[in-house]
Amino acid sequence: MRRIFLSMLLLCVSALCAAEQAALHPKLEPLRPYLNQHWQGDLSQPGADAKVIDRSLWSRALNGQAIKTVHSINDGQYGGESFIFWDENQQSLAYYYFTTAGFYTHGTMTFDAQVGEIIAQEKMQNNQNGITEVKSFSRIMPDGTLDVKSNYLQNGSWVEGHRATYKPVAQQQIIFK
Question: Which of 18, 53, 54, 94 has the fewest CB atoms nearer than 10 Å to its CB?
């Protein structure tokens, strides 16, 4: 009987620990469907000879107070890491994105629950192409793919940015050089 009691106690403690690990700040909950999934997108330009493959992973960070995203293009040719968190002062989701190209961005996000879309607006620092702002739209589609599109404020004018469809893939290493 004692062995059964100890087994049940360990099972309950394990369940509580798992629930604790899965906790996420309530304002980050709309982003939960993006978590713990490896994504891969083909960013190649039509007609280009070279493939441009972006691999990413979103994960829970800082005891659920943040979400960390990591991505790498062509196994480290370019990449970046973000932390998304609830900013109490701004009363908004906020994030910082640091890149291997030596620039970083910071911005805010909203989640449009009606269409299930993340809308991010960010300011850029030190971009060599004259881009000072980016607005992006990300949405998990009914088929499970992730559709991402963006617009850039480049040299004072808004221009169409990149667009990609990311597919869920098996676990893979995100590589930086």
Answer: 18
- With CA atoms as reference, report the closest residue to 147 among 158, 162, 133, 159: 162
Beta strands in the chain (DSSP E): 37-42, 53-61, 66-73, 78-87, 92-99, 104-112, 117-125, 131-140, 146-154, 157-169
Distances (CA, A) of 22 to 11, 60, 123: 17, 8, 31
CA trace torsion 121, 30, 171, 163 (10° rounding):
-30
**Cβ–Cβ under 8 Å, residues 136 and 160:** no
Average pLDDT along the chain = 87
pLDDT for 128 equals 81
Residue 18 structure tokens: 């798992």
CB atoms within 10 A of CB 105: 22
Mean local confidence (pLDDT), 26-52: 90
pTM: 0.80
Nearest to 118 by CA among 108, 132, 104: 108
Tokens read off for 8: 């049940």
Buried b (16+ CB within 10 A) or exposed e, 71-101: bbbbeeeebbbbbbbeeeeeeebbbebebee
